[in-house]
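Sample intake sheet
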Amino acid sequence: MTLDDLPPLRETLAAHDLLARKSFGQHFLLDLNVTGKIARLAGPFEGRAVIEVGPGPGGLTRALLETDASKVIVVEKDPRFIPLLEELQAVSGGKLVIVEGDGLAVDETALLAEHAGSVAGHLVSNLPYNVGTPMLIKWLTGPWLPFSMTLMFQKEVAERIAARPGDDAYGRLAVIAQAVCEARVVMDLPARAFTPPPKVASAVVRLDPKPVRPSPALLTALEKITGAAFGQRRKMLRSSLKAVGGEALCLKADVDPNARAEVIDGAGFLRLAEAAA
């Protein structure tokens, strides 16, 4: 049996009597044309491994198994889906690795070293809505940085990641994400593309790391500065940043203390973080 011989995902879910769990933020993407497009947008992988968090019934996993990735390592928290993924594993020719666990707690470097013989890998996931932002922050600021990330979020979150200064969606998530990566929305998906349909639309964001990554200390300072600045985004920076240096900090960083956070670009926030570190 090959991947092409497997029954449609809807039949597989019905056979296992599986429904999405709202508590896990699950919405299944069953259209293989859509999952195939996401896999193409995420590539090429050129023989590197791919990690997928929250594969669920394996719709995106099927598409990833048909790419040029050397290994597809899936991390699934919900034990109900392990038998479905094992059916995929059986016809993957050794390409699929299944890890039962929490994506927020997993050590990606150790996973890649154990199963792919390297620490270079991509991330491609339809992230559960309730953990999408924490997962992204983990990958942006943690010890392991993916070769690239192609991730699905609620459309509102996707817009916040890719927003530019002056945009309504511009905030601390955009600043942190774009300090580490080039970020762009590459695909929109309506709610009807999912089973069950969520109450909101979704979008896929591709993030490619910049040549130089800010140090862990600088990223920590950046999180603190953006938290203060955007926590009171309608105030001038001299006021919103008062607890961390206020006007003096702004002048040290060559940032206008009378400006508001929403108009300061990433370079300006990095200067503020460097001045505060």
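Comment: The chain is about 40% helix and 15% strand. The chain has a mean pLDDT of 90.
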